[in-house]
From TrEMBL:
It comes from the Bacteria. Keywords: Membrane, Transmembrane, Transmembrane helix. Residues 141-201 are annotated as: Disordered. The keyword Transmembrane applies. This is Uncharacterized protein.
């Protein structure tokens, strides 16, 4: 329980960082929300044109944050880890495409080059992956409880289904069949004054 709560907090912080990153500068002061997400997959690459909020990198990070939120609610480590892979994946892809335009990427002391938004996106992805590792996930319903084992035949069905075959006498001596009732099975023979009239004297 504690691990799930701690992992959820870490994953939520990572999702928040990823959502906040497009509103900061990514390269030369240009914010992440100014890059169209479709340009990452086109042959022409990144252009100098602006972009709307829901068609920019914010859309990819919004989807990742929604998946992470679903993973936190459902306590699914797989969903949180998937969101954690999407955020740095889009960030690294953007860096590759941006490097193709400028020839190289750098961080300058005057604030040009890679900006704070890239760092927030990468940190958010790392936090999402860390949250997935910390989370314990949902425990299976049919998990074996330690110290308890279910009996294979609770009512002795295995022994009851076996045919009742008479065996030898426990003492090792067989009793001859004389036609008289066995006193060990039916008790001692009643005295003569208790016999019924249909018995032979």
């Amino acid at each position: 329980m504690v691990r799930n709560v701690l992992g959820a907090v870490i994953a939520a912080a990572g999702a928040a960082g990823a959502l906040w990153s497009p509103f900061h500068g990514w390269y030369d002061g240009r914010r992440g929300r100014d890059y169209r997400v479709v340009e990452l997959f086109t042959p022409s690459g990144i252009s100098g044109h602006g972009s709307g909020l829901l068609s920019s990198l914010f859309l990819a990070f919004l989807g990742a944050a929604a998946v992470a939120l679903a993973g936190i609610v459902l306590r699914s480590r797989l969903l949180v880890a998937g969101a954690g892979a999407v955020v740095p994946g889009f960030t690294i892809l953007w860096m590759v495409r941006q490097g193709q335009v400028h020839g190289s990427l750098a961080v300058e002391s005057d604030g040009t080059g890679l900006g704070l938004g890239v760092a927030l996106a990468l940190a958010g992805g790392v936090l999402l992956l860390l949250g997935a590792v910390v989370m314990r996930g949902r425990r299976g319903r049919g998990r074996h409880v330690r110290g308890y084992s279910q009996p294979s035949s609770p009512y002795g069905t295995a022994a009851r289904d076996e045919p009742d075959v008479p065996g030898p006498d426990p003492g090792g001596t067989e009793v001859p069949d004389t036609g008289e009732p066995d006193e060990r099975a039916h008790g001692p023979k009643p005295p003569s004054w208790q016999r019924t009239s249909d018995e032979r004297w």
